[in-house]
Amino acid sequence: MNSDNITLISPQKILEKIIVYNKSLEIKTQKISANIHFSNGTIKEGIPIAINETEKVVLLHCKASIIYINVALLDHVELNLSTHVIEFLTDDNYVDLSNTNISTSLELKRLFKQEKDNIETLFDFELNSEIIINDLKTELEKYQFELFIKVLKDILNTISKDKLGQQALNNLKQLVIKSADNTALELTKTTENITIHINFKTKFKTDFNTHLKDALESKL
Questions:
Q1: I need a labelling partner for 81 at 20 to 30 A (CA). Which of 36, 122, 188, 207 fits?
Q2: Is the pLDDT of residue 199 over 60?
Q3: 156 bridge partner residues
Q4: What are φ and ψ of residue 33, in 5° steps?
Q5: pTM
Q6: Is 3 exposed, middle or buried (0-12, 13-18, 19+ CB in 10 A)?
Q7: DSSP assignment string, 42-92
Q8: In this structure, what DSSP letter does residue 143 have?
Q9: Pairing mode, if any, of strands 193-198 and 65-70?
Q10: pLDDT tier at 197 (50, 70, 90 boundaries)?
Q11: Looking at residue 144, what is its pLDDT?
Q12: Residue 91 burial (C-beta neighbours within 10 Å; 0-12, 13-18, 19+)
Protein backbone atom coordinates (compact mmCIF):
# COMPACT_ATOMS: atom_id res chain seq x y z
CA MET A 1 0.00 0.00 0.00
CA ASN A 2 1.04 3.63 -0.53
CA SER A 3 1.82 5.39 2.75
CA ASP A 4 1.85 8.92 1.30
CA ASN A 5 -1.54 9.79 2.81
CA ILE A 6 -0.86 8.35 6.28
CA THR A 7 -0.04 10.92 8.92
CA LEU A 8 2.85 9.89 11.18
CA ILE A 9 1.91 10.42 14.83
CA SER A 10 2.92 9.00 18.21
CA PRO A 11 1.40 5.78 19.66
CA GLN A 12 -0.55 7.86 22.19
CA LYS A 13 -1.95 10.10 19.45
CA ILE A 14 -3.01 7.14 17.31
CA LEU A 15 -4.88 5.73 20.33
CA GLU A 16 -6.60 9.07 20.79
CA LYS A 17 -7.54 9.08 17.12
CA ILE A 18 -8.91 5.53 17.35
CA ILE A 19 -11.00 6.44 20.40
CA VAL A 20 -12.55 9.47 18.66
CA TYR A 21 -13.22 7.40 15.55
CA ASN A 22 -14.77 4.47 17.45
CA LYS A 23 -17.08 6.80 19.35
CA SER A 24 -18.40 8.13 16.04
CA LEU A 25 -19.44 4.65 14.87
CA GLU A 26 -22.84 3.13 15.48
CA ILE A 27 -21.95 -0.38 14.29
CA LYS A 28 -19.86 -2.20 16.89
CA THR A 29 -18.25 -4.58 14.40
CA GLN A 30 -16.62 -1.65 12.57
CA LYS A 31 -14.76 -0.41 15.64
CA ILE A 32 -10.99 -0.53 15.36
CA SER A 33 -9.03 -2.68 17.77
CA ALA A 34 -5.31 -2.48 18.47
CA ASN A 35 -2.45 -4.61 19.73
CA ILE A 36 -0.80 -2.50 22.42
CA HIS A 37 2.85 -3.36 23.07
CA PHE A 38 4.39 -2.40 26.42
CA SER A 39 8.03 -1.60 27.13
CA ASN A 40 8.32 -4.82 29.20
CA GLY A 41 7.32 -6.97 26.20
CA THR A 42 3.68 -7.54 27.21
CA ILE A 43 1.02 -7.27 24.49
CA LYS A 44 -2.68 -6.56 25.02
CA GLU A 45 -5.29 -6.62 22.28
CA GLY A 46 -8.57 -4.74 22.54
CA ILE A 47 -10.65 -1.73 21.56
CA PRO A 48 -9.38 1.61 22.98
CA ILE A 49 -12.43 3.34 24.44
CA ALA A 50 -11.16 6.24 26.58
CA ILE A 51 -8.06 8.20 27.53
CA ASN A 52 -7.38 10.43 30.52
CA GLU A 53 -4.89 13.14 29.55
CA THR A 54 -4.29 14.25 33.15
CA GLU A 55 -3.48 10.84 34.60
CA LYS A 56 -2.13 9.44 31.32
CA VAL A 57 -4.33 6.35 31.43
CA VAL A 58 -5.87 4.50 28.48
CA LEU A 59 -9.00 2.40 28.94
CA LEU A 60 -8.98 -0.76 26.81
CA HIS A 61 -11.97 -3.05 26.26
CA CYS A 62 -10.49 -6.54 25.97
CA LYS A 63 -13.04 -9.32 25.43
CA ALA A 64 -14.87 -9.60 28.78
CA SER A 65 -12.60 -7.24 30.71
CA ILE A 66 -11.55 -3.62 30.95
CA ILE A 67 -7.83 -2.83 31.18
CA TYR A 68 -6.35 0.40 32.54
CA ILE A 69 -3.07 1.18 30.77
CA ASN A 70 -0.36 3.53 31.99
CA VAL A 71 0.70 5.52 28.93
CA ALA A 72 4.24 5.75 30.32
CA LEU A 73 4.58 1.96 29.76
CA LEU A 74 3.42 2.18 26.14
CA ASP A 75 6.01 1.16 23.55
CA HIS A 76 4.08 0.95 20.29
CA VAL A 77 0.65 0.27 18.81
CA GLU A 78 0.05 -2.37 16.14
CA LEU A 79 -2.98 -2.32 13.82
CA ASN A 80 -3.95 -5.27 11.63
CA LEU A 81 -4.36 -3.91 8.11
CA SER A 82 -7.67 -4.09 6.32
CA THR A 83 -9.38 -1.74 3.89
CA HIS A 84 -11.37 -0.36 6.81
CA VAL A 85 -8.24 0.38 8.86
CA ILE A 86 -6.41 1.90 5.88
CA GLU A 87 -9.37 4.20 5.25
CA PHE A 88 -9.19 5.23 8.91
CA LEU A 89 -5.43 5.87 8.80
CA THR A 90 -5.73 7.95 5.63
CA ASP A 91 -8.82 9.86 6.82
CA ASP A 92 -10.94 8.05 4.20
CA ASN A 93 -8.59 9.06 1.41
CA TYR A 94 -7.74 5.52 0.30
CA VAL A 95 -8.90 4.02 -2.98
CA ASP A 96 -8.18 0.36 -3.70
CA LEU A 97 -7.15 0.26 -7.36
CA SER A 98 -5.48 -3.16 -7.25
CA ASN A 99 -8.23 -4.78 -9.34
CA THR A 100 -8.98 -1.74 -11.49
CA ASN A 101 -7.88 -1.36 -15.09
CA ILE A 102 -6.29 2.10 -15.16
CA SER A 103 -6.35 3.89 -18.51
CA THR A 104 -3.08 5.15 -19.93
CA SER A 105 -2.47 8.86 -20.54
CA LEU A 106 -3.09 8.37 -24.25
CA GLU A 107 -6.32 6.45 -23.62
CA LEU A 108 -7.52 9.26 -21.36
CA LYS A 109 -6.74 11.85 -24.04
CA ARG A 110 -8.76 9.81 -26.54
CA LEU A 111 -11.63 9.48 -24.05
CA PHE A 112 -11.60 13.20 -23.31
CA LYS A 113 -11.58 14.12 -27.01
CA GLN A 114 -14.50 11.75 -27.63
CA GLU A 115 -16.57 13.14 -24.76
CA LYS A 116 -15.56 16.71 -25.64
CA ASP A 117 -16.86 16.20 -29.19
CA ASN A 118 -20.08 14.63 -27.89
CA ILE A 119 -20.74 17.41 -25.38
CA GLU A 120 -19.92 20.20 -27.84
CA THR A 121 -22.31 18.60 -30.34
CA LEU A 122 -25.14 18.64 -27.81
CA PHE A 123 -24.45 22.09 -26.38
CA ASP A 124 -23.13 25.41 -27.65
CA PHE A 125 -20.10 25.71 -25.37
CA GLU A 126 -16.51 24.45 -25.61
CA LEU A 127 -15.15 21.92 -23.13
CA ASN A 128 -11.46 22.32 -22.33
CA SER A 129 -9.09 20.79 -19.80
CA GLU A 130 -5.58 21.93 -18.87
CA ILE A 131 -4.87 18.81 -16.81
CA ILE A 132 -5.30 16.40 -19.73
CA ILE A 133 -2.72 18.43 -21.68
CA ASN A 134 -0.23 18.39 -18.80
CA ASP A 135 -0.78 14.66 -18.17
CA LEU A 136 -2.14 12.92 -15.11
CA LYS A 137 0.71 11.50 -13.07
CA THR A 138 -0.65 8.94 -10.60
CA GLU A 139 -3.05 6.03 -10.99
CA LEU A 140 -5.52 7.75 -8.65
CA GLU A 141 -5.48 10.92 -10.76
CA LYS A 142 -6.07 8.93 -13.96
CA TYR A 143 -8.82 6.84 -12.38
CA GLN A 144 -10.63 9.86 -10.96
CA PHE A 145 -10.29 11.94 -14.12
CA GLU A 146 -11.98 9.19 -16.11
CA LEU A 147 -14.67 8.91 -13.42
CA PHE A 148 -15.13 12.69 -13.42
CA ILE A 149 -15.65 12.87 -17.20
CA LYS A 150 -18.38 10.23 -17.01
CA VAL A 151 -20.03 11.98 -14.05
CA LEU A 152 -19.86 15.37 -15.78
CA LYS A 153 -21.51 13.96 -18.90
CA ASP A 154 -24.37 12.49 -16.84
CA ILE A 155 -24.84 15.75 -14.91
CA LEU A 156 -24.98 17.86 -18.08
CA ASN A 157 -27.58 15.49 -19.53
CA THR A 158 -29.63 15.75 -16.32
CA ILE A 159 -29.49 19.55 -16.24
CA SER A 160 -30.51 19.82 -19.89
CA LYS A 161 -33.67 17.73 -19.49
CA ASP A 162 -35.83 20.86 -19.14
CA LYS A 163 -35.85 24.06 -21.21
CA LEU A 164 -34.40 26.23 -18.44
CA GLY A 165 -31.46 23.90 -17.96
CA GLN A 166 -30.85 23.59 -21.70
CA GLN A 167 -30.96 27.36 -22.12
CA ALA A 168 -28.61 27.93 -19.16
CA LEU A 169 -26.06 25.54 -20.66
CA ASN A 170 -26.37 27.09 -24.11
CA ASN A 171 -25.60 30.52 -22.63
CA LEU A 172 -22.13 29.22 -21.73
CA LYS A 173 -19.21 29.84 -24.07
CA GLN A 174 -16.68 27.62 -22.34
CA LEU A 175 -16.48 25.03 -19.55
CA VAL A 176 -12.92 24.56 -18.29
CA ILE A 177 -11.51 21.80 -16.07
CA LYS A 178 -8.49 22.73 -13.97
CA SER A 179 -6.49 20.80 -11.40
CA ALA A 180 -6.47 22.20 -7.86
CA ASP A 181 -4.33 21.15 -4.91
CA ASN A 182 -5.90 23.23 -2.15
CA THR A 183 -9.58 22.54 -2.66
CA ALA A 184 -11.58 19.39 -3.34
CA LEU A 185 -14.05 21.12 -5.65
CA GLU A 186 -14.67 24.76 -6.47
CA LEU A 187 -16.38 26.49 -9.39
CA THR A 188 -15.67 30.01 -10.58
CA LYS A 189 -17.60 31.96 -13.21
CA THR A 190 -16.98 34.88 -15.51
CA THR A 191 -19.64 36.35 -17.75
CA GLU A 192 -19.81 33.42 -20.14
CA ASN A 193 -17.33 30.85 -18.77
CA ILE A 194 -17.31 28.41 -15.86
CA THR A 195 -14.11 26.86 -14.52
CA ILE A 196 -14.22 23.68 -12.46
CA HIS A 197 -11.27 23.52 -10.05
CA ILE A 198 -10.93 19.96 -8.82
CA ASN A 199 -8.39 17.95 -6.85
CA PHE A 200 -7.81 14.64 -8.62
CA LYS A 201 -5.06 13.65 -6.18
CA THR A 202 -7.41 12.94 -3.28
CA LYS A 203 -10.35 10.56 -3.08
CA PHE A 204 -13.71 11.92 -4.21
CA LYS A 205 -16.21 12.01 -1.37
CA THR A 206 -19.31 9.83 -1.47
CA ASP A 207 -21.53 12.85 -2.23
CA PHE A 208 -19.24 14.12 -5.02
CA ASN A 209 -21.82 13.68 -7.81
CA THR A 210 -24.47 15.64 -5.93
CA HIS A 211 -21.98 18.29 -4.87
CA LEU A 212 -20.77 18.79 -8.45
CA LYS A 213 -24.32 19.01 -9.83
CA ASP A 214 -25.40 21.52 -7.18
CA ALA A 215 -22.24 23.60 -7.67
CA LEU A 216 -22.67 23.65 -11.46
CA GLU A 217 -26.34 24.58 -11.30
CA SER A 218 -25.56 27.39 -8.83
CA LYS A 219 -23.26 28.97 -11.45
CA LEU A 220 -25.61 28.67 -14.43
A1: 207
A2: yes
A3: none
A4: -100, 170
A5: 0.69
A6: exposed
A7: -EEEEEEEEEETTTTEEEEEETTEEEEEEGGGEEEEE----HHHHHHHTTS
A8: H
A9: unpaired
A10: very high
A11: 93
A12: middle
Alpha carbon of residue 18 to chain centroid = 19
- Encode pLDDT of 59-118 as tens digits: 888 888 898 988 888 899 999 877 778 778 877 777 778 788 999 989 999 999 999 999
CB 195 within 8 A of CB 188: yes
Predicted local confidence at residue 31, as pLDDT: 87
In this structure, the strands spanning 174-179 and 74-78 are unpaired
Torsion of CA 128, 130, 132, 135, to 10 degrees: 170
Quote the CA–CA distance of 167 and 189 in Å, as a whole number. 17
pLDDT in tens, 21-43: 888 887 666 888 999 999 999 99
Compute CA distances 52 → 12, 59, 159, whole Å: 11, 8, 53
Is residue 11 within 8 Å of 30, Cβ to Cβ?
Answer: no
Please name every residue paired with 44 in a beta bridge, in sequence order, or none if there are none: 36
153 in Cβ contact with 114 (< 8 Å) = no
Average confidence score pLDDT of the chain = 87
Amino acid at 119: I
Backbone angles phi, psi at 185, to 5 degrees: -160, 125
DSSP one-letter code for 190: -
| 1 DSSP assignment | -
Counting every residue written for the chain, the total comes to 220
